[in-house]
Amino acid sequence: PIETFSPTVRPSEFDPDRANVLNDITTFLGDTSGIAGLIKDVDARASHDLGTVSAFQILNEENVGPNMTLSFANSIKAVKTRDVVDGLALTTGSLKLFQPKADVSASLITVAGRLGKFMVAGSFNDDSILNISGPNGLLNRFSVTDDFDGQINVDGRAGRIDVGGDFAGALKIDGSNPKGLALRTLNVGGTLTEGAFYVDGHVGALSFANTLGTADEALVINGNLAKIRVGTDRAIHGSDFALDLSVDGDLKAFEAFGAVTGDIFARGDVRKFMVTADPVTAGTDILAGKIDIL
Length: 294
Prior knowledge:
The protein has one helix spanning about 25-30, and strands at about 40, 45, 50-55, 55-60, 70, 75-80, 85, 90, 95-100, 105, 110, 115-120, 130, 140-145, 150-165, 170-175, 180-190, 195-200, 200-210, 220, 225-230, 240, 245, 250-255, 260, 265, 270-275, 290-294. By secondary structure, the chain is mainly beta.
């Protein structure tokens, strides 16, 4: 508890105007009510439900692989930490909230149904996997404030996915409803580099602030794509739509700021196609890729 620390590091209790992140432990940690200590090297399994799990950190003892187990067949209400999640193997039928305030590493999260919010205030690292499956599989909201380097596999539907930094991981969505959207929205605040992107179904909107991929990569959508925008951060110049885009359906709107060096394929109607030069690409061949519309 905070009360066990010396009063010299707890000025917010006695002189709130003087408290700051440098001299007050409560201000530094934020609201720690209901959150204390570590959960480490636990193997908890049951056939019914689990409420809210709160801790400072969730870890496994060896720091190798997902060895810290939470397996509850019906549901888990929430998993919240003030710091990292490292080495967690979580399995459940539904999960309302997963909210670590730092990186997720070496973890395997499997939800056989609905996942409400997966909110990471950090990075989702390359040794971590999120699986959504089942007849009602839904990833409603996924957000990382920093980089996405891990894997997301969705058998069903995905709502909104936000990546604050770079996208270097793998996203695979097998849509369960041929008439609805398999993915509603994806926003990437940085660059897509060395990532894998595949959606079997219709997609709403894709937005990338900077360069999209490299020449040896492809973005594949087996369905319609309502809108894709690349180079949306106008403070960044020289963005490039560099990978190949394959849309097995209609491509309603394509917008790129900077240049397009990748190939574009659409097996349907294209209603809007716009490439706009910026100060770096002005005067160059801004549409160097091949455009193929069937």
